[in-house]
Write a structure and sequence with these properties.
mainly alpha, elongated, transmembrane, plasmid, membrane
Length: about 140
Amino acid sequence: MNSGNEKATSENSPAKAEVIFPSEVSTKLSVFDRFATYVSARTSQAWFFVVIVVLWAPSFFLLGTIDTWQLIINTVTTIVTFLLVALLQNTQKRSDDAVQHKLNAIADGLADLMKQLSKEHPELDKDLKELRLAVGLEDHESAS
């Protein structure tokens, strides 16, 4: 495993990206991150959908005309959708990053173990090289 402040890098990677491990990640969340986490936890439950429908259904009777109702409902729906997408995307990205940091730590530990075992089993050298190249691959791999 890496000791101290030493960070793993992909030895033959094009970008030579630094890999961040779980112990190097700040645990301090910004106000926006805390808000996004709170909203994500609430909006991902069934009762949220029920509350939205219960508030939406009788709103027609409060506004009177269909044109006014449609305008207000469409505007509110657009704003709420845009806000929820931004908040949920923030939460999803942080979750994906956390999983990647954990995978990097597991791969680093496994690579260290494979390095020790490769003295007795030289066939592990190729697998060790591939594993080291895979750490940090997400930083320079194409989505297509």
